[in-house]
Amino acid sequence: QFPDATQQVTAAKVRGLFSAKPAVVEQFPPNTTNDSKINLGTENVDSEGWFSASRYTPQIAGWYQISGCIWYSGSVGIKSVHALLMKNGTQMITGQFLGWLTVGNSGQIVSFSGLVYLNGTTDYVELWGSANSTATVEVLTDTTNFGGYLLKADQ
Q: Which pTM does this prediction carry?
């Protein structure tokens, strides 16, 4: 059942809290349109130990609030960039920028946020991204992040 707006999340009751970011800058080569998993080598918090190898696999069934943000930086010609929430390898939520940035040292922040049901055993989520540009695009470490928490557990 979907969480209702009358329920409150308090710090004392939060379960499954996690937040991670890349440890090193990743690069997308020019004219690439393939989606790629973002390697999240720095854990900011992992309250239950459910985050490992850039993958969050919670062990309580329920609804999770998940968000992600990728900061893409390129010298010129960014055509499009995406931030994707992947559940079990399938795209669930997409944040995107479609345009053409032509000035030097251009960049774009792309984010998403949403509710996802996870079964508490085998379901997992990951942060993926893609960048299409005429030059190499980097994923910056300080502002790229992926995180979430359990909003409502199954009864």
A: 0.86
Q: Which residues of 84-119 are buried (b: 16+ CB within 10 A; e: fewer)?
A: bbbbeeeebbebebeeebeeeebbbbbebeeebbbe
The answer to whether residue 6 scores a pLDDT higher than 60 is no
CB 73 within 8 A of CB 118: no
What tokens appear for 106 in the block? 């251009």
Say which residue the tokens 């695009």 belong to. 137
Confidence band of 96 (pLDDT split at 50, 70, 90): confident
What's at 18, amino acid-wise? F
The pLDDT, as a whole number, for residue 12 is 53
